[in-house]
Design goal:
By secondary structure, the protein is mainly β. Helix content is about 15%, strand content about 45%.
Length: about 200
């Protein structure tokens, strides 16, 4: 008789666990909760491609129409050989050629800050906001280290918007000209980015 009660309890427990498991699966499919897995095709994403963009970045710190403005500094910034602690807000023009008068393709908007006490190393946090051609209205986001006096600097592309949604890649920066008297610079950028 005890064996029958144990078998009955075991069967009942198994039935209840099965019902609970099935109801949990049904509920999970209906309620997405915090996250869910999606197919890229459901978002209209087609095949991923690699694009190369080439443009010039004009960092203008002098004159009445400056596009880069210091917004903060540490007490030691003025005595630091690297400008450590300086924070600069930018809205720099991007052009097709090194001349500022050449065709504009967008703006570099964001912040750079002197983040090194041993060399001129900037933390770059900015968006390339494009205004030309098929990329008009699209952006690429940069977050990385820029050692200004290195010949070529590599910074990661960490995302984007518009046609650059889900972007990832890197940017190579090379100083084209630097005016030591004014601090104004023109930097050539070659950007390689995967996107849909």
């Amino acid at each position: 008789m005890a064996k029958i009660k144990i078998k009955t309890k075991t069967k009942t427990l198994l039935i209840l666990l099965t019902i609970f498991s099935i109801s949990t699966l049904i509920t999970a499919k209906k309620n997405h909760g915090f996250s869910r897995i999606l197919s890229p095709a459901k978002l209209g994403l087609k095949r991923e491609k690699l694009s190369h963009l080439h443009f010039y970045f004009h960092d203008i710190v002098s004159g009445k129409n400056a596009t880069a403005v210091r917004v903060a500094e540490a007490p030691m910034t003025k005595t630091s050989l690297t400008g450590f602690g300086a924070v600069v807000m930018i809205d720099d023009p991007l052009t097709m050629k090194p001349q500022l008068s050449s065709k504009p393709v967008g703006r570099a908007q964001g912040i750079y800050a002197s983040a090194s006490q041993t060399d001129v190393g900037l933390l770059m946090v900015l968006n390339f906001a494009f205004t030309e051609g098929k990329y008009n209205g699209s952006t690429l986001s940069v977050l990385g280290r820029n050692t200004v006096f290195s010949d070529v600097r590599e910074m990661p592309i960490v995302g984007g918007s518009g046609l650059f949604r889900f972007a990832r890649g890197y940017a190579h920066a090379h100083t084209h000209t630097l005016d030591f008297k004014t601090g104004d610079a023109v930097v050539e950028y070659n950007v390689y980015v995967f996107h849909y």
